[in-house]
Design goal:
single chain, alpha+beta, Arc Repressor Mutant, subunit A, 2 domains, 3-stranded antiparallel beta sheet, 9 helices, 5 strands, 14% strand
Length: 185
Amino acid sequence: MSDSQGSGLPLSAQLEGLLFIAAEPVAPTELADVLEINVKAVEAGLAELEALVAAGGLRLQRHGGRVQLTTAPELAVSIERFLGLEARSHLSRPALETLAIIAYNQPATRPQIDAIRGVNSETMLKSLLFKGLIYEMGRSQGPGRPILYATTPDFLQHLGLNSIADLPPLQTAAPVDSPDEMLKG
């Protein structure tokens, strides 16, 4: 890629530097503004950067139209040990269930989550909010205007994903025969 602003560095290297110092995920339009180039060129540079870092210890993570440079999920244990952090807290089965419902249906409301799970999800939602894996993105226009929940970039890091698109396809259960049909067979 050609250099921008006469820095002498390829665009992918400039993007890497900007993302390295960014405190939070950045929109490609912001990067384009800073580099004074168009968004299409930024996207091409991000694709090049993603290919370059894929073989190393960094990853390009995309979430909600924003991009961020993160460490490779395979390094989590070594990084935690290096930083002296306790082992990553594991999520309970109900928390994972709630998180999966939000991830595949986002934005999702508590009534929707409760209906799918068949139980009250208030405690799980509070736990996931506290852990920074979900956030309140607004309110639904439906009756009672329930809170809408969506996943955060930390959710992607926790699961070692680069994008929400990397989630495995949702598998639906086979239809269950009704008791009447089972008696006939």
